[in-house]
Design a protein that fits this description.
By secondary structure, this protein is of the alpha+beta class. It has 2 domains: about 80 residues, no CATH class; about 60 residues, no CATH class. It is built from 4 helices and 3 strands; from the N terminus they run βββαααα. A 3-stranded antiparallel sheet has the order 1-2-3. A hairpin with a 6-residue loop joins strand 2 and strand 3. The longest helix has 25 residues. It is elongated and about 70 Å long. The mean pLDDT is about 95.
Length: about 160
């Protein structure tokens, strides 16, 4: 197979979207530990991408690739779209959204504890801080309802 011996012949489509590759950083991969159907990744190479969230350039290092493809079992055609900081924010947003989805119904009940309502407001605020887009209208309505309940007003106001 082309590129399995000579990194200079390694197909660049394994790094789709990269703005540059550092072939001098190449490290031979252990293909027996990879998740692939036909073609494994024979090399891990430092590659630079543009983050789709912050538009900053970042390096997807050979060490991170080895971890993802040999330890985490990620499919070998995967490539990053977010820098580490944006990826961590994305993961936190996902976790907070799961928390919100599981607790918002209970928090909106008129007899739910104030501490739960305050916790949900904090969750909503943190989701908003981490988001690059406006929150959905339903979440904004729920925020207003929780605030009104905590202030002793009719939650529909």
């Amino acid at each position: 197979m082309t590129g399995d011996i000579d990194v200079k012949q390694y197909p660049e489509h394994f790094f789709y979207g990269a703005i540059r590759l550092d072939l001098s950083s190449a490290k031979k991969a252990n293909i027996s530990r990879q998740n692939f159907t036909v073609v494994p990744r024979h090399w891990y190479i430092d590659a630079w991408f543009i983050c789709k969230e912050c538009n900053e350039e970042f390096c997807w290092s050979k060490e991170v690739q080895r971890f993802w493809f040999e330890e985490a079992g990620t499919y070998v055609w995967a490539h990053p779209s977010l820098c580490r900081d944006c990826w961590l924010k994305h993961q936190e947003r996902k976790q907070l959204r799961k928390q919100y989805d599981s607790l918002i119904g209970k928090a909106l009940e008129s007899d739910s504890p104030a501490v739960l309502k305050q916790e949900m407001l904090g969750t909503i605020n943190r989701i908003e801080e981490l988001s690059t887009k406006s929150l959905p209208e339903q979440i904004m309505q729920n925020r207003r309802a929780l605030t009104n309940q905590l202030n002793g007003r009719n939650p529909i106001q």
